[in-house]
Amino acid sequence: MPDLSGIVKAYDIRGVVGEQLDADLVRDFGAAFALLIKPEAPAVVIGHDMRDSSPGLAAAFAEGVTSQGLDVVSIGLASTDQLYFASGSLNLPGAMFTASHNPAKYNGIKMCRAGASPVGQDTGLAEIRDTVEQGVPGFEGQRGTVSERDVLADYAAYLRNLVDLSGSRPLKIVVDAGNGMGGHTVPTVFDGLPIDVVPMYFELDGSFPNHEANPLDPANIVDLQAKVREVGADAGVAFDGDADRCFIVDERGEPVSPSAITALVAVRELAKDPGGTIIHNLITSKGVPEIVSEHGGKPVRTRVGHSFIKAEMARTGAIFGGEHSAHYYFRDFWRADTGMLAALHVLAALGEQTGPLSELTSAYSRYAASGEINSTVDDQVAKMMAVKDAFGARSGVEIDELDGLTVQLPGGAWFNLRPSNTEPLLRLNVEAANAEAVQGLVDEVLAIIRN
Q1: For position 143, what pLDDT does the model report?
Q2: Do domains 151-365 and 368-449 have the same CATH topology?
Q3: Is 100 a catalytic residue?
Q4: pTM
């Protein structure tokens, strides 16, 4: 019996094509997914990114689905949030073929139930893995059919209807698509808006010839920063490979933290829905819940990860949620994450006033932060306990273990230390009043971890 634990992750399936993932295996995943959702839906919507392997794998998955008697609606090239739009608007389960920002040799499958409801380990993914490992049962009935449907224009219209840019002043915006799916969606979404788009790396190319399509790595936004300054743009936007995350730089080319974007968008959503609930994960700045509360909202803190965010949004009826990783979730987008909608909110806020983006976002950036710092360790548990013991003995320190170890120090500084689920790493995030205080706390924690 095959062991698929190496490629069936917490939220998706991901592996090296030809070694861990091939058409036969993907066909079985498609059949297993069909068995999971057959009682709920008559068809599955399938999209794929620009990787060379994606069309073939998507077709194999479709064969697996139709082999169990369900139909397939193929939307072809799509961003992940475009697939979520199709799942939500058509009320069908979906599968997206992408490995996001991973190198070209990888591919993967993100699956959802109708209405873009996530499928993770606890919501069907483990069951799918078990079915494939044990052997997918045959089906004697009539095979399903495959039809094609282009939803790009509908997706763009839906987003533009959620954010009104008609009153915006003209803006010049540099967009770095990283040779990913932003190059496919941005031209249609931004068509007709008062925005002069300066495109960078819009050519769809799954080999990522210019830089890795991961805008959270500072090395991957260097080109964007330089272009913003060169052309005198009002802002820059970078998307990851499947364009479900966006990262913003201001008119100086300086990065705007995802926490500041979370707070900014939260305030805009609260203006439409006063008193609403806003979800934030425990690594976002403490400025986020402060600002949400100041604007009459109800902040709710969660673990890191989209399945936790979406579940908490459903439980609380939240109107918006944000993560430190630049994932942004909207009730009005089936509680799914869409970087494009977050980008439109930022641009609308910028276009509504005359000042620069740096001035606008400064009100949402209250504290200094370290960003995520990874340390390779032999024993994650032992190192976590060493840190807990060192800080827990101090007066006035508060510790919680909702997700890893969060340590709140007297005076407002805090840090979170979390183990990676897939690598022998500990991930450290620190926030304090200023850069000097951040560095001092970073040095203190790393001295324990790396000793």
Answers
A1: 98
A2: no
A3: yes
A4: 0.96
